[in-house]
């Protein structure tokens, strides 16, 4: 009953935004089953299933002269680990315009910035990698957050401001269905991963700004973010009895960046960069906090044949104060990354059978970390309502401490059936 009360509380304000004659709500959604299993027998997780769920998503929206209402609600049963029913309000916001230049959006929403294809620099909004690694739809990579957004449009460009009062972290593997590296080894069941969030205080809210403008045929943008690292990359020592134990935390972070995207060489090219200012280790001498970094991304995409599209991206991340980091980690006997980390990605998409069949592959490869993550999928549109999908996620790496190497025991295959209505 509580779920339906919340849904009605979301719908009723929207109805008040428009005259009764225009108060028409459009409803659609889908019913989906997802089944997935891991391939590595020695994975220390609690179950061999990476997914075993049935999901119902219902969307409701209303557009009126005075404003807009939108909600996206998921109900799902998860039987992969401990069988449980759950629900999540993925989106639920009110949007309205003030005059000719201002748009405001209040509520639970999903925000996407930047230019990269599954590589994020200035898109500092929360991601759900637990969903991404087990085969859920791509929409589930972006985690929702409760935020207030304001957009201002003018002849010289557009400004966007997003304020998230309560910090929203990335959703990472916890050891139940997907194993992870805990700083010493790859772990699963028995090593729950639940780092504390920053205190719920006004000063700990997240603030993101973007200025964008079209120059010729190119879209350009400047970015700023004040908040925290989305992954718990810092450590603090907390007292446990008579000893001190390490606890992962989310260090404070500022990000300054820029991007440009537009047509070139018969395709689309994009360039993006950012400076990650680690506010709690600006001198790079605190071994428990991440060093500041500079990151750059160059990408290109084009259609290379009929119904065949491919792209390629190259990202480089340079760690500042690297000599201090290297000395500290070598003395502690810990993994030492390269000063400049390189990442190359490529996506290939092929449409066949009158575009009823979609074949897709995406590969992340880091020559410096010596690790790789490959994801592939095949989607067949059986009818306008029914889509059949199979796919997989494959990880490998030389070191357990690298971005993808830590997930090397999480290889999995999945099957998905989606009925839209």
Folded structure, characterized:
- By secondary structure, the protein is mainly beta.
- It has one domain (2-420): Porin (Beta Barrel), CATH 2.40.160.10.
- It contains 3 helices and 22 strands.
- Strand 18 (340-352) and strand 19 form a beta hairpin.
Give me the secondary-structure category: mainly beta
Rounded average pLDDT: 92
Q: What's the domain count?
A: 1
The CATH class, by name, is Mainly Beta
Summarize the amount of helix as a percent range: under 10%
Distance between the termini: 24 Å
CATH fold category name: Porin
> What's the helix-strand series?
HEEEEEHEEEEEEEEEEEEHEEEEE
Largest sheet: 18 strands, antiparallel, barrel
Work out the strand percent.
Answer: over 45%
Describe the structure concisely for a colleague:
With 421 residues, this protein is mainly beta. Helices cover 7% and strands 53% of the residues.
Keywords:
Porin; 421 residues; 18-stranded antiparallel beta barrel; mainly beta; single chain; 3 helices; two-stranded antiparallel sheet
What are the SSEs and their pairings?
Blueprint (H helix, E strand, L loop, with lengths): L1 H14 L10 E13 L10 E15 L4 E11 L5 E15 L3 E8 L19 H4 L12 E10 L2 E8 L15 E2 L4 E2 L18 E10 L2 E11 L5 E7 L2 E7 L2 E13 L2 E12 L14 E13 L2 E12 L2 H11 L7 E13 L4 E10 L4 E11 L4 E12 L14 E9 L1
Antiparallel strand pairs: 1-2, 1-22, 2-3, 3-4, 4-5, 5-6, 6-7, 7-10, 8-9, 10-11, 11-14, 12-13, 14-15, 15-16, 16-17, 17-18, 18-19, 19-20, 20-21, 21-22
């Amino acid at each position: 009953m509580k779920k339906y009360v919340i849904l009605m509380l979301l719908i009723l304000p929207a109805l008040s935004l428009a005259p009764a004659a225009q108060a028409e709500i459009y409803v659609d959604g889908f019913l989906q089953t997802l089944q997935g299993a891991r391939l590595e027998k020695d994975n220390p997780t609690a179950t061999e299933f990476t997914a075993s769920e049935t999901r119902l998503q219902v969307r409701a929206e209303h557009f009126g002269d005075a404003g807009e209402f939108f909600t996206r609600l998921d109900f799902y049963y998860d039987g992969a680990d401990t069988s449980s029913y759950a629900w999540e309000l993925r989106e639920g916001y009110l949007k309205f315009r003030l005059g000719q230049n201002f748009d405001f959006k209040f509520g639970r929403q999903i925000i996407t910035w930047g230019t990269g294809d599954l590589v994020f620099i200035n898109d500092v909004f929360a991601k759900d990698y637990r969903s991404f690694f087990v085969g859920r739809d791509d929409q589930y990579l972006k985690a929702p957050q409760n935020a207030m957004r304001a957009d201002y449009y003018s002849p010289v460009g557009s400004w966007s401001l997003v304020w998230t009062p309560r910090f929203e972290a990335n959703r990472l593997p916890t050891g139940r269905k997907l194993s992870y590296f805990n700083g010493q080894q790859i772990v699963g069941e028995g090593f729950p991963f639940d780092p504390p969030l920053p205190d719920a205080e006004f000063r700990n809210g997240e603030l993101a700004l973007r200025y964008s403008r079209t120059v010729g045929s190119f879209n350009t943008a400047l970015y700023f973010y004040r908040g925290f690292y989305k992954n718990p990359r810092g450590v603090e020592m907390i007292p446990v009895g008579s000893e001190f134990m390490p606890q992962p935390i989310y260090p404070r972070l500022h990000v300054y960046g820029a991007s440009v995207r537009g047509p070139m060489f018969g395709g689309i090219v994009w360039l993006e960069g950012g400076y990650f200012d680690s506010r709690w280790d600006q001198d790079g001498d605190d071994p428990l906090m991440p060093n500041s970094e500079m990151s750059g991304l160059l990408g290109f995409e084009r259609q290379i044949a009929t119904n065949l599209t491919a792209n390629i991206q190259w990202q480089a991340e340079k760690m500042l104060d690297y000599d201090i980091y290297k000395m500290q980690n070598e003395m502690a006997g810990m993994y030492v990354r390269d000063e400049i980390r390189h990442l190359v990605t490529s996506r290939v998409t092929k449409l066949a059978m009158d575009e009823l069949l979609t074949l897709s592959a995406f590969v992340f490869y880091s020559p410096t970390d010596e690790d790789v993550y490959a994801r592939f999928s095949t989607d067949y549109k059986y009818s306008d309502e029914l889509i059949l999908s199979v796919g997989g996620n494959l990880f490998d790496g030389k070191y357990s401490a690298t971005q993808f190497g830590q997930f090397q025991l999480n290889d999995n295959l999945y099957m998905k059936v989606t009925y839209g209505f």
